Predict the 3D structure of the following.
Amino acid sequence: MGSGILRFMDPGTIAPSKRMTGSALAERVFRPAFLCIALLVATTFCCVPRSMADPDIWWHLRNAQMLVSTHQFIGTDVYSFTARGARWMNHEWIAELPFYFGWAVDGERGVYLITVAAVESLILGIFVLAYRKSRNLGGALMVSLVAALLSTVSYGPRTILFGWLLLTVELLILDASENDERVLWGLPVLFAVWVNTHGSWLIGLVMMGGFGVLEARRFRHGKLFCDGMRRSRLVRLGAMWIASVGALFVNPYGWPLVAYPFNLAFRQKLNVANVLEWKSLDLHSPRGLILLGLIALLVASQLGRGREWRLYELAYLSLGVYAALTYTRFLVLFSVVAAPVMAASFSIEEHEERGRRRMSPMLSGAVVFFLLCLVYARFRDASRSGAKEEAAFPAEAIPFLVAHPLQGRVFNECLWGGYMIWHLRAMPVFIDSRLDIFEYNGTLKDYLDIVRVNNSLALLDRYHIQYVFFEKDTPLVYLLRHAGGWKVDFEEHNLILLERSGDERRDGSNPM
């Protein structure tokens, strides 16, 4: 893999050889480029959490299982009783399949390995982008390590990883088209896959168009310049942009899937307002401090060296910084679009002669041995964790609920909904982390009112709720315990199952 990456970074880096001697192999292994890749891979691997703590992964697995077993795309909600039968699109179905196949092969460990593969591919893609921009290993490694740390906000079994990976591929295609215009033909295919993978395709389409506009004409003003794009390349890029728009409609849901990113931006106000990742970046947090430090270092470097910037590079940098400061989840967007163009500003002096681009064999061997030990220790710990359930989910209650099926409607913690969808197939949920469908019909607003103790009892009555399955130390549970008419069916650590008792019971038969 390292050899392939280096060929893409610089086709002249490695010369083909029919026979590989021991000394030649050692020389390749101890090249600075290979050591940089090893350091980056090991650091990234240690940053990936060994957990299934993401609340979405469970209903993603269920979606994929239904698709594989029935060969039909989900078109309506089948998991809840509050939105059952309502129209719903599984707009990330391609990204769900790798995680499901990982689960089918090796359970949670298989999902973890798919996550690791996606994250490593993303960070290596950023490294390749950074090197192509800077032609400097030191600068590329520095920004890639920072990107690996900032991107931890999205590490985990998440479909968005594949969206960011496709964005990285798009930027590599655009960069490579400067030398070979034929690679632009891959963009419509990329977008046909992307639209079925994640809604981040809209960012890629905007960046593709912006790249063409900003590179179209020759321009120079101070340290800002643009060389202008060859007419043939510009025409082909425009044609591929139009073809990519058409490719978006190659999906099982038609135009509604293409319109979904706009739906999220303009219609799902409660979703955006109440999900932590949509909050602005906390500049006092570790990630915030890292980002501020990187920006400060860039300013200092620019004052000292004053390197020239291409117009689109400045646009990428501005987009990345704005997006990261505005929404925490877009720290990964910053890492993909902005970090690589910063690499040249942090270039570390290198000896360009290939004969001198080697480290001491003893030092290099020690570095490689240390990295291998680090990765092995981490991998062994991951193997030992096996099927360990995260404290974030109500794993301890599942055996009780399987042995004692509930006869009535359940009001559940939102972030537990997906876990229940996967483990309790016969129990429809009140809500889960597919917040779009529940915002449309008002369920999300009612859920927020109930948990915030705003007319909670009346709302529970309106939905004919027989059980409340929730975190124990919350205002809602405190209210029900002191309001009367509720009894405890199950209680363990920080979870509790409450049931209406006596005359307080409501008629709410299980719709399944």
Residues 167 and 204 are 6 Å apart (CA to CA). The chain is about 55% helix and 5% strand. The mean pLDDT is 86.
